[in-house]
Batch of 3 targets.
Target 1
Amino acid sequence: MTSCLAPTLVIVGDDPSFRYLIQRYAKKSACHVVFVDPTEDISGVVLREMPGVVMVELDFPDERGWKVLRTLKAHPETREIPVIVCSWADETERSLDEGAAAYLRKPILYDDFQAALGSVNL
């Protein structure tokens, strides 16, 4: 963990159980969470919050999660913010190829959540 008392995590997802779980893990890890629905202006929220990490849920019926990752990595002000992607499918290789800092396969365990945050120095 960084010396910051409450590093910010921006979570992009709409699955209520995913949001609940990440909220619990973040609270346990002393992180501040900002949830963003995938239909919102994600780039605007990330630019406003300038979080330590963005976590993107990929399990949408379209390519929305991948578009979020590509958009954040293409923008000069957000490209250095680590993005952790999460999915039920094994998308590890594609995620890393497209610029993700880490990949979490659902169901996400607390130790895996902590390891992912540690891998991006949060």
Note: The first helix runs from residue 16 to 28.
Target 2
Amino acid sequence: MKVAIATENGFIAQHFGRCPGFTIADIEDGKVISKSFVENPGFKAHQPGQVPMFLRKQNVTHVIAGGAGPNAIANLQSSGIMVIVGVTGKVDEILDKFIKGGLKGGESLCDHGEHTHEGCNH
């Protein structure tokens, strides 16, 4: 499986579509076999659907983020990508919890103040 974790300064980013990048980890037999950081193609010029398409091309099977809008979540899920939101903490600790089966998601932490973009309705 391949996991993409929305990342900002070594921590889980609050918003999937606006994070600086993703820590992408390949996991086999309960172990990380490779891990890299890739820049978010939508970080500076965020366009609906751009980031989910990018992650599909990376063969990502799971996305972990603090939050994401309902349209982004639906877009990812329609491609067979499992989405876990409501997560906070250090990327490496969250990855370890995920591998061990102890990662629990929650409500999306998506918060943009008073403006609206990709699926977040405020």
Note: The mean pLDDT is 87.
Target 3
Amino acid sequence: MKKPVILITGASQGIGAAIAKVFAKELQGCRLALVARSVKNLRAVAKRCAQLGAGAAEVFPADVTREDAVEAMAAAVKKRFGGVDVLINNAGFFRPGSFRETSVKDFDESVAGNLRSVFLVSRAFAPGMARRGRGDIFN
């Protein structure tokens, strides 16, 4: 039986990188699709995941707030792995500051990074999960 494909957004640092490393260590042989904007950081996380036991740790650079970027990333992931078994929508955006000082532009970036990205990435992979009758999405 093939090990599951786990796609993690925001995988280049912080919680996303930690999630990837835990999967690599605890689910030996799993196949990781690591998504974020920073190619350099993604490569470092992928290398560490391979050392920890991931069967594959592939890098898929993308800005998950952009529809065209998510579509291109999803096509690349599907070409490499077929379907995704577990989707972890971890990418997020935070700009510190008070409510009164937050500009509309900053607010829009926050909504895109924390909500639009979840919609776009889930929309790209949930139909395949539904067709196969299995899959999990974590936000």
Note: Strands lie at 5-9, 31-36, 56-61, 86-88, 136-138.
